[in-house]
Amino acid sequence: MGQHDVPDQTASLETLPAAEVCRALGSGPDGLSTREAAARLGRFGPNTIAVARNTSLPLKFLANFTHLMAMLLWIAGFVAILARMPQLAFSIWAVNVINGAFSFWQEYKAEKATEAMRRLLDEKASVVRDGAVRMVDAATLVPGDVLVFAEGCRVCADARLVESADLRLDQSTLTGESRSVLKTHGEVAIRGMSRLEIPNVAFAGTSVVSGTGRGVVFATGMDTEFGKIAGFTQGIAEELCPLQREMRRVTRVVTVIAVCSGCVFFLLSVLLAGMNWAEGLVFGMGMIVAFVPEGLLPTVTLSLAMGVQRMAGRNALVKRLSAVETLGCASVICTDKTGTLTQNEMTVREIWLPDVPEGDGLRVTGAGYAPDGSVWRGGEAVEATRGGGLHALLVSAGLCNNARLQPPGDGRSRWTVIGDPTEAALRVAALKAGIDLVAEERATPRLRELPFDSRRRRMSTVHRGDGESLIHAKGALREVLELCTRMLADGVERPLDEPARARIMAAGDGFARSGLRVLAVARRVERGPGLAGVGLGRLPVEDIEADMTFLGLVAMMDPPRPEVQDAVTTCRRAGIRIVMITGDYGLTAESVARRIGIIGDGRARIVSGADLDSMDEGALDEALSGEVVFARAAPEHKLRIVSALQRAGHVVAVTGDGVNDAPAIKKADIGIAMGLSG
Fold it and tell me: Is the pLDDT of residue 536 over 60?
């Protein structure tokens, strides 16, 4: 293979064994040499997202003085000079100058604020060069580079994984969904998978939630999935907003009326009033100037500016003054779910224990990662007492866990997490129940971890206790339940018979129908040296995860923002329709939509991305005529939905907080990017 040759085999890299990936990309375990990386950088270009060519600052400034209404006012001033009214001419021109300068200053401030937020992005990557791990500028990454992934780092290019250890990525920037995605390095058959569902590829713009791994870069810059969405977005032409279209129409009408009226009065003054041609011309020009609404533009600008200032007081950044009016006349709002309607923070809402009577489950209050709230049974708050079922469940869930909570401080204004959001929610629930997990971890140190994988669908940890060994497990209900032979009820381990198994499965199905994510928790206690006295590294997984005691179920969700329900009610009263378009699963999306009032008590249609691909325009229009939730939607699906609504005559607003929302936000009549990530 030539020195700078990189085979174009990226379309099949997912199906290759990890050992062959480096060879296919002209690389190796020691990465590229500095010289080879420099050569490839010259060939492939920098690993950056090409920004659409911006209009220069002078042209942006002039644009505020050369639109149709501004041109009408400039001409009116010249006509006033010819009509021997210089004071009026200078007044009209002054209005034009002040209005244009103010509009430019507002856009300039918004642009600078946006650029400042872009600079917050991480621009470093950990890469193997010349056989050593080093930090380099992300812009210098090239195909063939070996990236090193660790908890908390950003993925700066698309890479095929060649090593992984419990590697989980947050792909919410691309998918809009906050749940972490388990990644593996083995070859896979990608038939039936969307691009972002491929488990052995790490995509640019995502971040590492937990675990470690290595991957070989196969796409950089605009060739990454992130870059393709950016290019797709930049290719969408900007259109005039409703206010701009209306102002253009008004300007044309006023111009025609003014000119026609001036001509009519000129003829009348000459033919009927006996004026000479010169006097009649001055009179006609004066009539033209009189018909020009020189106060219209500053009045509109001042009204919009007041709206901008009020929105700025609520932390909204408005790039164009006309956007304020567009937002006010929106008839449909298309909204993402995760991070927009919800808090993008997993929260435990329900706990089910084997000894709790049906219909009398435990409810957990509070939302987000702050440990503010408590566990309630009926109308009474309860604490987890040692030896009880609640204490056993939350301790097991908290110890079989790699997440960490960070309280406010060191520049953080709120509670944040390091690690998987689901695991963080379990630790928060333990704190709400009064459990000190740090003390529990000291008392029973971890000896071994059996990480989650897609086959077992569970995670287990082994701990050394006081004269005993403990195994804690959590995961999918069926997979955990099949390990259990007993259950903990009233502090006593009892046999797990078939009626009890059926009751557990029914409880889990009930939570799932409510749109909650369900985790099962189990443990095993070995008295004496037990597992601590054998070679844990050699003990098979099947021998560790066996003969366990079922502890209960934990049901969690990403809760809606507290202010959303009132906002939805206000929109409905104003006649504004809300359409949810999300990358999440249909039942979860429907549950959230019902909870906050986007859809009513009647039957709603759930349309997936795959369903949308098979629909023609007529079928899509029919789906949009009733109550509908769009699930598992890709960026192109969101764009198509917005286009269909605009075709039906709606003024469409789109909200979102991820790159996957960008094409629809740009296509919409008004785009609303939520939060710093937006």
Answer: no
